[in-house]
Write a structure and sequence with these properties.
Layout lengths: L12 E16 L4 E13 L23 E4 L10 E2 L2 E6 L8 E4 L3 E13 L11 E9 L8 E7 L13 E14 L4 E13 L2 H23 L5 H28 L8 H22 L16 H9 L2 H21 L5
Parallel strand pairs: 1-9
Antiparallel strand pairs: 1-2, 2-7, 3-6, 4-8, 5-7, 6-7, 8-11, 10-11
Helix pairs in contact: 1-2, 1-3, 1-5, 2-3, 3-5
Length: 340
Amino acid sequence: MPDNWTESKQPRFPIVVGLAYSKIIELDAGRQIFGVALEIYTQWSDIRLAWKAKDYGVWNPADYGGIQYIWVNPEDVWIPENIVGNAKVLDEIYNEDYLSLKLWFNGTLVLARSYYAELSCPIDVGHFPFDRQKCQVVTMAVSYDRNQVFAAPMVNNDFDATHTSNGEWSCKDIESGIEVWGGSNFKFDVVTFTFTFQRVPHFYIYVIVLPCLILTTLSIIGMFWRPNEQEEQLAKLGIGLTSLVSMTVLMDIVSGAIPKTIKFPLLGLYVVISIAIIAVACVIVVVFPRNGQCPFKDMDKTQSIRLRMFTFFSSHVVCHAIFQILNVASFAVFMSYWKS
């Protein structure tokens, strides 16, 4: 075989590597691990095992009672190398004693193996809980130079990618591809199956985000619905501090839910912003109390328009509007990352 297989008259030996089934078990951002149950099949041809033909080059099952394939013991035939290359843990669900190999009349062989694998997967949680992750299953035959063997990837068209999903992750797509690894002296084909997952965020929205939004909204209403009179200052401050204490419960839930990685997740940032809004509102209530009565309190009805203008532009109304706008804006920006 020459250094470049394209210059050879002898074709490379083809091996088809297919993904028949997959089911996500876990996706651990802290350990950067993708746990999945897999069924991978390998297909190749061994002309020595084809039905003996009456006419040279023609294999006719009719000459053998219409038998198109048989099942054989994998130990009785040659099986090309095919390993999962990026697995930290690889447990074969069925050992060799329970495996059968399908042999077709023309010498084509198909062997399916089922695994539980824990694979390395770079997980970016910057957009948690609206994050999307891509994890790969990498299979290779390191012993065979790509000048001698080429691998062809295949995904079972009858298998719906959504069946790979679990309660926390939704599988959006499974793509197959081929890469070339190695150096200048030795190269080999690598078959990749790329899974695209999207986190199902409903739990975090209902348990953390919506309560956080409601608490912040009610706190702002309680502190700025009425003018900041000195006699009401303590009650308003109590509303804000009570909300901050409630936020600590949500923050505890967030700290237990978000992965401990170098990137601070979007959900944590949203909760911190909500806490900051309430904290600043508490400071304003303490620092800027209102002294005295409204100068327009005793005005007659002919000056009611001026009274309404004063009420509209009074400090507590302006503060109420500003903080509610900030609250709604932070919620809207947070939810804008949710893409189905």
